[in-house]
Amino acid sequence: MQPVGVSADTVAAQKDFETKAQLSIPLLADAGRNLINLYGVGNSLFGGLANRWTFVIDKAGVVRIIDKAVKAASHGKNLAEKINF
């Protein structure tokens, strides 16, 4: 399994954030909003920013979990408890 982060930021902004936050997962830039639109996570109430949701997709490409209640402080632990396929 390979976790990745996706946002509407540019590649340059993603690299900058990745460095500052010292992240251990790769970030994908979706400045064209292709994935954001495909997965329906755009939020028109907040200037089109993407909602902070997590999708767990298995090796066959099937979405197994959609977590719409992401809380950064506990998300890793909460997600690990849900993944059991």
Radius of gyration, CA atoms, in whole angstroms: 13 Å
The pLDDT mean sits at 83
Which range best describes the helical content: under 10%, 10-25%, 25-40%, 40-55%, 55-70% or over 70%? 25-40%
Biggest sheet strand line-up: 1-2
Order of helices and strands: EHEHEEH
Structural class: alpha+beta
Could you tell me the number of beta strands? Answer: 4
> Any idea what the shape is?
globular
The total tally of domains equals 2
N/C terminus separation: 11 Å
| Biggest beta sheet attributes | 2 strands, parallel
Explain this structure to me?
It is a single chain. The chain folds into 2 domains: 1-50, no CATH class; 52-85, no CATH class. It is 28% helix and 18% strand. The protein is built from 3 helices and 4 strands. The strands form 2 sheets. It has a two-stranded parallel ribbon with strand order 1-2. Strand 3 and strand 4 form a beta hairpin. The protein is globular.
List keywords for this structure.
85 residues; alpha+beta; two-stranded antiparallel sheet; 3 helices; 28% helix
Describe, in short, the structure shown.
By secondary structure, the chain is an alpha+beta fold.
